[in-house]
Amino acid sequence: TSAQKPTQPGPQTNEYADAQLQELVKKLRERANVYKEKLNDPVISSPEASPPASPKKPPAPPKEEKKDEKKDEKKEEKKEEAEAKPEEDHYCDMLCCKFKKPPLKKYMEYMKLPDTIDSYTDRRYVAWLMLVTIAYNWNCWFIPLRYVFPYQTPSNTIYWLAIDVMCDICYLCDLIVFQPRVRFIKGGDIISDRAETEKFYHSSVKFRLDVISVFPFDILYFFFGFNPALRANRMLKHNTFFEFNDRLEAIMEKAYIYRVIRTTGYLLFILHINACLYYWASDYEGIGSTRWVYDGEGNMYLRCYYWAVRSLITIGGLAEPQTLFEIIFQLLNYFMGVFVFSSLIGQMRDVIGAATAGQNYFRSCVDNTVSYMNTYSIPKLVQNRVRTWYEYTWDSQGMLDESELLEQMPTKMHLAVAIDVNFAIVNKVDLFKGCDTQMIYDMLLRLKSIVYLPGDFVCKKGEIGREMYIIKQGEVQVLGGPDGTKVLVTLRAGAVFGEISLLAAGGGNRRTANVVAHGFANLFILDKKTLNEILVNYPDSEKLLMKKAKVLLKQKGKPPPGPPVQQPRGLASLFGQKQETPKLFKAMLGGKGKEGLAKLLQLKKQQETQETQTEKETKPKEEEKKPVQPAAPSAPPAQKEKPQADAKPAVVQRATSKESLIISMTPSPRAGEGEILKVEIKEKEKK
């Protein structure tokens, strides 16, 4: 008896190890596909970072060099500690809070004057001009006052002289320190050389007036007494006053406010001069000598100022002049009042009109739009939405169309403004990451800003997509579901949608969902035509965007994730899954699986039985009549006529035909699509 061999157990598989091996194979395949794409198109960057180069070990220095290096390192550490200590010590404790206080050296460096000064951008120069302007106004207002009114007395002369000396010091510092450092423009170039700026200032008319304004006529006090009229030359420094006005208006956000204050100051100063002249005329005629002059009662300056206001503004109600001097003085006062007051009123009107020009333009646009809607009987609901759009756009932007303002600027300034305002938003878009920065700059100049009201449809499902949207401000909601009211996702500032329609090569891509503005939304729009015009000059960025477009289209075309497919176990995992039956054969079989094939076979059997019955019936009749007829072709005439009717020059048919079943193969009319399989089933004609 032969010994029976023990049966060996079947192969056993570990499910965990099997899953890990399949995952590893999947990753290796993906990696191979990525490298294939990298070889085909070098624009795509490698998914793996290149390993850093291993640092080479320097040769060991001798012992003496090591000691010197250690000493140098210790010295550097001590210097760093010494530099760090002052920064740490500059703290100020106040109200249980600790504030960092910069050292005195930083203050000194900031306050140190440069070799030359840019009068348009240096705020320190504007502050200095303000100080000189205060000194100038002191001289303009108080020199006439002290000369005419008896306010300067021997008891208070020392105080007047002290303030005069301070104003003269400001004039001298401006003449010696600041004005020679101011840059100037010559032939389109900004001259910043110290020697050139001094030479230019010394050759100007402004320098001559500044020198005359600080000329010390005050020395004559020792000969003629303390007469304020000797300081009249201080009022010649008017160029600095007007320069300060220009520089201050350039840096103010609402310059019209300062213009109104300045115009009011002009009016008050003219009234001040008129009051001084009236007191001088009253003193010349004699205080209280007639009804027209000042009577000497009350506050002399306020009484004279009141008379100057009523006379210069031509209010009337004043006493009649009595003497010839009084009549001439009053006539000149009236003439000057009409001219000055009318010019100041006109200037005030221009200032206020310029300040409210934008608001007036906005109101005129709204009024014209409302009158248009009323003319054509637009519903009130639509009119209210139009008014809401106007109000929100004006409140948020301060204008109706930003492009009108930016188009007035040069292209470089327009780009600089666009970068500061919109680059941070566009740079966050994943679609444009890796593209040329200059291409993004060009795109910023082409973006259009549009405001949507709450509930407005940004795009609707089924529309042809021709634009891409970038959310600048606000939120939008993507709607879906069976009734189109379910909120699928909410997009906020910096999000992008519609990029697939923009990058689709064939065009005609339809929107797949409704997008509605949730609240007020300000969006940037970039259309396909504009993007193509930009990408003409940036081929590398165009390739990168096309690659990203392919990835987006693949992700869009993927079916929704269903239940996980069970992986085959054991040796079955080595064989691939069974491929799906081609659609062409499904159409030929007329159904799914065996059902369609069974119906087709059953139809063929019915056709054969009908043919045998007709042959049996026709044979006896043919034998009786015995007509002489030509041999009939094997194929039926219907089949013969059909191909001739449909025949084309480049058509080749391969067919197996019966009376009621025709199967034919014809080349496709479109190049590159192969052949077309046609299956035709016809009922037998009854005789």
Descriptive overview:
This protein is of the alpha+beta class. It has helices spanning about 15-40, 65-90, 105-110, 125-150, 155-180, 195-200, 205-215, 220-225, 240-250, 255-285, 300-310, 325-355, 355-375, 380-395, 400-405, 410-425, 435-445, 500-505, 530-535, 540-555, 585-590, 595-625, 635-645, and strands at about 90-95, 95-100, 185, 190, 450, 455-460, 465-480, 485-490, 495, 515-525, 655, 660-665, 675-680. Among the domains are: about 125-340, no CATH class; about 400-555, Jelly Rolls. The protein contains 23 helices and 13 strands. Strands 5, 6, 7, 8, 9 and 10 form a six-stranded antiparallel β-sheet that branches. A hairpin with a 2-residue loop joins β3 and β4. α9 runs antiparallel to α10 and α10 packs across α11. The protein is elongated and about 155 Å long. The two termini are about 80 Å apart.
Put simply, the count of helices is 23
Determine the oligomeric state from the structure. single chain
Radius of gyration: 48 Å
> Helicity, in percent?
40-55%
Overall shape: it is: elongated
Low-confidence parts lasting 5 or more residues at pLDDT below 50?
A: 1-5, 43-58, 82-89, 558-563, 627-658
What structural class do you assign from the helix and strand content? alpha+beta
Major beta-sheet overview: 6 strands, antiparallel
Distance between the termini: 82 Å
Mean pLDDT metric:
76
The total strand number stands at 13
Strand content: 5-15%
